[in-house]
Amino acid sequence: MRLDKFLKVSRIIKRRTVAKEIADKGRIMINDKPAKSSSDVRVGDTLVINFGNKTLTVRADDLVETTKKNDAAGMYTVLKEDYKETF
């Protein structure tokens, strides 16, 4: 499954266009390698997503084409969540 679609369907990022922009700016890594929006995500892959003041590390557990809001959280497991303090 494409990275941008996985992020949208899993609801980690709400819109696919936003997911594409973030990925194409080099702010997402898949298994410690830079990822583009068209990169393939497979079950078991580790994704590191750099938001503005937050870094989210997740593991892809399931890949489905569409999902309901309640089932979206089952597509991934949060491994680590770091916040950068700004003063």
TrEMBL record:
Pfam families: S4 (PF01479)
Domain RNA-binding S4 residue range list: 1-64
Domain of life from the UniProt record: Bacteria
Keywords (A to Z) from UniProt: Protein biosynthesis, RNA-binding, rRNA-binding, Stress response, tRNA-binding
UniProt GO molecular function: ribosomal large subunit binding; rRNA binding; tRNA binding
Assembly mode: Associates with stalled 50S ribosomal subunits. Binds to RqcH, 23S rRNA and the P-site tRNA. Does not require RqcH for association with 50S subunits.
HAMAP family hit by this protein: RqcP (MF_00871)
Functional description taken from the UniProt entry: Key component of the ribosome quality control system (RQC), a ribosome-associated complex that mediates the extraction of incompletely synthesized nascent chains from stalled ribosomes and their subsequent degradation. RqcH recruits Ala-charged tRNA, and with RqcP directs the elongation of stalled nascent chains on 50S ribosomal subunits, leading to non-templated C-terminal alanine extensions (Ala tail). The Ala tail promotes nascent chain degradation. RqcP is associated with the translocation-like movement of the peptidyl-tRNA from the A-site into the P-site.
Keyword field contains RNA-binding: yes
GO biological process terms, semicolon-separated: rescue of stalled ribosome
Protein name per UniProt: RQC P-site tRNA stabilizing factor
Family: Belongs to the RqcP family.
Residue stretches in coiled coil: none
